[in-house]
Amino acid sequence: MNRLVMIMSVSILLAACNGGGRGDGNGDAGMDASPGEDAGTDAGGGADAGDAGADSGTPGYTRIPLQLPDDFPDVDGFGLFDVAIAADRAWVSAYTSIVVQPGWTDNGPVAIFERQGNGAFAVASAPDSRMVFFPYLCAVDDNEVYVTLVDTKTDETGFGRIFAREIGPEPVFAEEPAPEAPQGRNIMSMRSACFSGGNLWLYGSTQIGDDIYSNVPFVFHRAATGEPWETIALPDAVTAPSYGTGVTSAWIQPNGSGFYAFSSGESVSIFFRTPEGAWSNAFEATTQEVAQILDLTGDSGYFEGVAGTQSGLDAGMGGFLRFGRPGFSLEPVPDTSELWAAACDSSGRLYVGGCKYDESDAGLSSVTVLFRTDYTDQTEILPRRDGRIQRFTFPKKGQGPGLAILDFTLDPAESGLYEVAVP
Length: 423
Known about the structure:
Layout (H helix, E strand, L loop, with lengths): L3 E7 L49 E5 L12 E9 L3 E13 L2 E4 L3 E6 L5 E2 L9 E7 L5 E10 L2 E9 L7 E4 L9 E10 L3 E9 L8 E7 L7 E2 L14 E7 L5 E6 L3 E7 L5 E8 L4 E8 L19 E6 L4 E6 L4 E7 L5 E11 L2 E11 L5 E3 L6 E6 L8 E6 L8 E6 L2
Antiparallel strand pairs: 1-20, 2-29, 3-4, 4-5, 4-6, 6-7, 8-9, 9-10, 10-11, 12-13, 13-14, 14-15, 16-17, 17-18, 18-19, 21-22, 23-24, 24-25, 25-26, 27-28, 28-29
């Protein structure tokens, strides 16, 4: 049985997230703020022994140390953004931070970590970058993986870039031509659905300067590496400028057919595109806050899905957004604040991660939410721990533990990359 999964969340304007199409990258936002950039400013340190283990019925979380090499450009810290696993290789992307003056920190160049087999993660060679936002990963296999990101020529000018891994044993990424925004506009977010041979579908939003009410969505396509980029016509209903975040996630086939999620401020919609390029509205919801559908995951054919918090649910409650026959239905999940990431394991079970926020005299804290479903009405909430699951993925082929990015931990030093063994 094949399935589609969706994560939906009410979020601040210009937010970001992960998913797949089904390459591995979805969701998103503009350059001013990103919940994906809360994963701490230093992801180094030693590995934890693990919280528990699969045999105990409790997820086992083992922290994986990451460090920048001495020859990396001078930065003041880094935080993790996205993660992908193929078969024998895995990648983690990170944004870096530079303290301009007390109280003022800018983003710096991107860092791309690669792990081969059971080895340690090491920083890959990549083109120089200046001030990077939203370095999304998309892996086809061990030798074909892409990083799509927004870089800046000035503090207010964003443009899209594509780094592709070169074939070979060494972790080396080279730049490939990216589409340009229309005259007078900046790329604010850019993500990809990637397929074999360099078949890429890019989606996101553009904006005029710092006018957050001028965002419009885009979808670009190239058929193969070296081929020209084509601008894909979008539904008229989503092309008006707004303070939304454009195309925030997509689950599609190599021919571009499938589901695309749009945010236009206080409303979200999902449109289905046929192989011939015809669009039809599959879902629409109006919220009291800026909302976006953050993640899509699954494989081809039969579609079902999940979603995170949205206005209209009780406070502090997330929910599934299932897509089956005849359409979407929202099913609340109690005691959940936000759902951020979804992943399917090798047996086809769906895992969804996020958090529950708790506020006390000591301030705001969070505990992980990790639950799984076999696409029936049964949803199993797994035991919790400190922090928020921001990204989560399993190997694309074969079996093995997943990788997760945790942030919002009580101890900032505990934020970072974790290997997760699920029961």
